[in-house]
Amino acid sequence: MDYETILYEAKDGILTLTLNRPSKLNAFNEQMRREMMDACDRADADDDVKVVIVTGAGRAFCAGADLSSGGKAFDADNRADRASGLNPDGGGRLTLRLYELNKPIIAAINGAAVGVGVTMTLAMDIRLAADVAKFGFVFARRGIVPEACSSYFLPRAVGISQALEWCYSGKVFPAEEAYEGGLVKKPVPKDELLQTARAIARDIADNTAPVSVALVRHMMWRMLAADHPMEAHKIDSRGVYHRGRSADAKEGVESFLEKRPAEFSGKVSTDMPAYFPWWTEREFS
Questions:
Q1: Are residues 165 and 244 in the same domain?
Q2: CA dihedral 24, 185, 214, 28 (to 10 degrees)
């Protein structure tokens, strides 16, 4: 797929996806959804990609849904797929694909992140923010409700009280408040944002086993919904058993003892353990 609304730049194990509609403040539309989901598929299939960073071009990260169609922007009856009987939330489809990603993903929020511009980041693993960034769960002020699976992700990220306060008011708030509420790591100067994100990504890409990282990602996220720690014990035990027998585990120990960098050979595309995925398979179209 050729991309028009995003930039796809992979280098030295790090993939940077840039939302690229700067004249529209990177407003989210159906084309961007399709391109982002294709980029996720492409990243998962590429073993050279160890970490993904998502950022925005220009002064915004993503100012929310594209409202250029006016008052009926959120009217499902206007959607091109109405005849099919499908009315899925596009932001939710993207967020679910991000949730299924086999690579760690970092949001480098360089400016305004409002509506779907912030909810799409909730399924990303680490959220960094520039000190000039602003956030808003503005749905009630637009006469709609939170989308992109944020009623699942947001309370888990910041707690139910903070989630409800931000969603009830629909206000736009600064990066410092997002930090205090637990939404992002401590804000950094805008000109240091990508450098900070890449330093985190570099540490992961250079020092860890990709198969282990993929398993860690899914184990952590999916245990958020577990109803008993026994579920974690069961999947931890399977993971330790299968990974303990792997060439990566041998290399991890030997490189440590020999005081040298590890060279992990396992590939996410071909070497995930037989029990993966252990949850109910979901399909994306």
A1: no
A2: -10
Is 274 contained in some domain? yes
pLDDT in tens, 165-214: 999 999 999 999 999 999 999 999 999 999 999 999 999 999 999 999 99
Residue with token string 């994100």: 197
Q: Are residues 282 and 269 in the same domain?
A: yes
pTM of the model: 0.91
Q: Where are the alpha helices (DSSP H) in 67-135?
A: 90-100, 116-119
| Domain region containing 258 | 209-285
Token digits of residue 112: 């305004």
- In a domain, residue 234? The reply is yes
CA distances from 214 to 62, 252, 263 (A): 27, 16, 17
Structural tokens at position 263: 């060279």
Please give the tally of structural domains in the chain.
2
- In angstroms, the Cα distances linking 203 to 13, 74, 208, 254 are 11, 41, 8, 20
